[in-house]
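User: My instructor asked us to take a sequence, write out its structure as tokens, and then describe one feature of it. I'm not sure where to start. Here is the sequence I was given:
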Amino acid sequence: MKKFLIGLVAVFALYLPFGIYRANKDKPHDIEIKNYKVGEEIDYGDLSMVVKDYDFIQNNNKKRKAYSLRVKYQVRNNTNRKLDSSKLMFGIQYRNGFRDSVVQNLKPGEDIPVNIDLDMYDHYYGDDDFIIEGNDSKEFYLYYSVFSEEDYRKYPSCLRMPSKAYSSKYKAKLDKGIFYYEIVEVGA
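Assistant: Let's start with the prediction itself. The structure tokens for your sequence are:
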């Protein structure tokens, strides 16, 4: 019985690397990151955007102390018709180390009964605020939650653009076995 168990473990140990290889052979193995600088235009066809500036701030609220990254965006509509830029703007994620955050300073809609503290940020946006007239641009100040000042200073930070904004490029790279991302570094 002992020899049988040893033989079974040996066969399993020999098969394991082969099984791992087969399970992962068609999966992407490389990563490519396009890194934009603050002030550099990012063109997504109908919409283009620039991260104009950012700053780390401490929100001293009566109820709690919180930290945020405030990012100033300039978003341009490159078409002759009205466009809604909310999908692009809501899809941007702030990454700090292994933590991520989404836009914090949005007004809840009528169908979302959220209790928010309107004294927390100096800018709040509703759905209509993200509509941009043809060949026009708008500035937005969006806030992202930061766990602590220590984490912000210690870990690298970036804004990761939504892959839907560059989906054809993302899919083409994925077909070649490459994960592709577009980011703007906003670290300390």
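For the description part of your assignment, you could build on this observation: The mean pLDDT is 85. Try explaining in your own words what that tells you about the chain.
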